[in-house]
Amino acid sequence: MGALSHIRVLDLSRVLAGPWCAQNLADLGADVIKVERPGAGDDTRHWGPPFAKDAQGKDTEETAYFIAINRNKQSITVDISQPEGQEIIRKLAAESDIVIENYKVDQLKKYGLDYESLKKVKSDLIYCSITGFGQTGPYAHRPGYDFIVQGMGGFMSVTGEEHEFTGASPQKALPISLLACMPAQPFWLPWCIVIALEKVNISTWHS
Predict the structure, then answer these.
(1) Strands (DSSP E) along 120-201, which ranges?
(2) Cα(168)–Cα(71) distance, integer angstroms
(3) CA 103, CA 144: separation in Å to the nearest integer?
(4) For residue 131, what pLDDT is reported?
(5) How far apart are CA 97 and CA 28, in angstroms?
(6) Among 90, 88, 68, 70, which Cα is nearest to 78's?
(7) What is the per-residue DSSP string for 1-36?
(8) Listed residue (33, 186, 139) closest to 96, CA to CA
(9) Bridge partners (DSSP) listed for residue 63
(10) Is 34 helix (H, G, I), strand (E, B) or coil?
């Protein structure tokens, strides 16, 4: 039994930063419910090779990428674009301590699954929203994928072929997210969430 075995996490995130953050909480014993798209699942289910091997050493349909950042979770599929799916998420949120999502700013608001909406079903809910450019400011509504960071940061300008070569152009290099996200998001966010949990506990004790 882990230190967070009394905690339930509703993981609405996908790809890297959010799932890795939720996995760290799962590794500490939290009950993590991962919500995926019906018919497709998390994007990283299709990001292979490499693929996991079966008992005969043959490739399966499970990508190593997905497995590496989603262990110790329970997974369900829910169509959040439908009223029935939205109601399922609200019911799960009401029974959870933490919600983690990494949609673009206000994208979940149109489904009634943003913080302001979900705190109505659970007032002490901890809501972790991961974005590329923060919740406010001129770039807030932009996506924050790896190649966007490389382009805006200038990293692409120093990679690829020299200009005199035919077809030369900026080139996406080693996923910079592996360097930028590792210390900043999946590792630090669980600490922030645990601190928020403690604050909720203290408020409960003093009420």
Answers:
(1) 126-129
(2) 40
(3) 10
(4) 85
(5) 15
(6) 88
(7) --TTTT-EEEE---SSHHHHHHHHHHHTT-EEEEEE
(8) 33
(9) 51
(10) strand
Which among 165, 163, 139 has a CA at the least distance from the CA of 153? 139
29-63 core/surface letters (b: 16 or more CB in 10 A; e: else) = ebbbbbbbeeeeebebbeebeebeeeeeeeeeeeb
Which pLDDT value is given to residue 143?
79
Question: Can you tell me whether residue 198 is helix, strand or coil?
Answer: helix
Count CB atoms within 10 A of the CB of residue 3: 10
Q: Is 59 helix (H, G, I), strand (E, B) or coil?
A: strand
3-class SS at 123? coil
User: How do residues 53-99 score in pLDDT, each as one tens digit?
Assistant: 999 999 888 899 999 999 999 999 999 999 999 999 999 999 999 99
Tokens of residue 67, six digits: 């497995």
Amino acid, single-letter form, for residue 152: M
What is the separation, in whole angstroms, between the first and last Cα of the chain?
A: 29
